[in-house]
Specification:
two-stranded antiparallel ribbon; mainly alpha; two-stranded antiparallel sheet
Length: 520
Amino acid sequence: MTPLTALAGESLVQSVDWLTIAPPTLTAVVALVVLVADLFVPEERKRLLGWTAIAGLVAALALLVPLRAGDRSTFCLTADTQVRACSYTADEFTLVIQLLVLGGALLTALLSVTETREKLPAGEYWFLLLSSAAGAALLPASRDLATLVVALEVASLPAFALVGLKRGDRRSGEAALKFFLSSVTATAVTLLGVSFVYAATGTLHLTELAQRLDDVPGQLQTLAEAGVALTLVGFAFKTAAVPFHFWVPDTYVGAPLPVAAYLSVVGKAVGFTGLILVTVVAFPSYADVWGPALAALAALTMTVGNVAALRQRSTRAWSAVRLLAWSSVAQAGYLLVPIAAAAYSSDDQIGATVAYALMYAVVNLGAFAVVALVARRHPENRLADYRGLYAASPAAALALAFFLLNLAGLPPGIIGLFAKVTVFSVAVDAGLGWLAVIMGVNVVIGLYYYLRWTALLFRTPESAPESTPDGAQVGAFEGKAVPHAVPAPITLAIVLTAAAGVVLSGYPQLALRFAANSLF
């Protein structure tokens, strides 16, 4: 064999580090196993599919342990570590986001066990959930734009079907259509931007893009700038940043509750992870463009989200879910602040976004778990339905109060307060004092509607149902134990999220340590 032939063979044939790609790969394999098994498992044993999916997610989380050193990569262009460009990297950032994504999918699966047993087709549901989780786990490891877009779509496409899986429900179909149209628009814009960037630089690898965008020929400069702007707009859709947020409330209301919880945490993590990768890793030379744009988006997003949440009427059907939907929009604004700050100071600011995302994932999934529990007695999930919950179910009421106080940033939700102070400090340190002031005002607005919901939990139950202005009856808890048996998987989800919230509140440095270790 000649040296030229050997060199060609080495460049075309690569060894795959299977351990590095094991977490998303195992999740995808289990999804296929569940889909095939659904063809042969009798109807009365369909619940085994759910427990198989849960076992697969637990195993995928366990596979993160051997990768904890954060120094592995695969699908690389060259073995030369000085100029290495890899498509898949399992660094600390990747592992923390994969922990968040797979952990969020696991809690969603626990919330879904009862839903698939009673309302949803089990085989399709578990296949779609695991497929989306596999794409979400692949995305933080993606280090080229092609893999990034593919991972984004693998995470998003099954989610459309999950939202519309309630057959015969008009709201579910409408929600799926709105989600689909907004996501397809975002994908089209992102692909156009990626194609422009590739045309201007000749590469898709993020590390090489960061170098080549510094030296783009003059005749291609406008093309590169347009590509960067379009790519950022596409990811702004995925993060539900205002004004690209219009799909969120109706999608959350129309989707099955576990799917709404999944979108609020895992879907948001996917969008923000992609945004971090393209801004901080691929486009640092355009920080003067995306920094001010993201700062403005952050201010607009947190303001619109909080004001809309504030306007939710307690007697309106599904007002509890709508409030959580608008709350998630507001929280997206807070998550954007450290990314914008990274344009003005250093990449270290990204750690604040990761820390805030960890806090938000735990407490928001916990809140959705309690909402899913209450929905078993009050399917329309009005805020008024939570009046007197403490008298009927003290543990559930205390857990929900703890989650809401964390979202508000009040003690005993220390981790929520800690996360907000961290993000506030990042804005001040980056010289974004105006953004810190806007954030402070929005935190005060958030306090009102979170505390209003919390107060309802402990109010004296009414002996008769309340009446709405249109004459509809709003059932409240009447001081008696909830007659429905509490499903064990929902109880486990509430216990796990509450325990994680208590641990992080007692030791908030743990979240910041995760964040510090997640830097590139």
